[in-house]
Amino acid sequence: MDQPQVECILFKVTDIKWVEFLQDPTENEDGQKSTEPDAPQKSA
User: Fold this and answer.
1) What highest taxon heads this organism's lineage (predicted)?
2) Most exposed: 6, 20, 24, 44, by fewest CB within 10 Å?
């Protein structure tokens, strides 16, 4: 019964990452936050 637990943890981690992404849309895939709030080279 370890699988359901692992899936729950993975879901929580993914959910947190998604929330962080929504809060910081300027964050690049590399995890480097842009200095400007509206970076022209921000990835979609």
Assistant:
1) Bacteria
2) 44
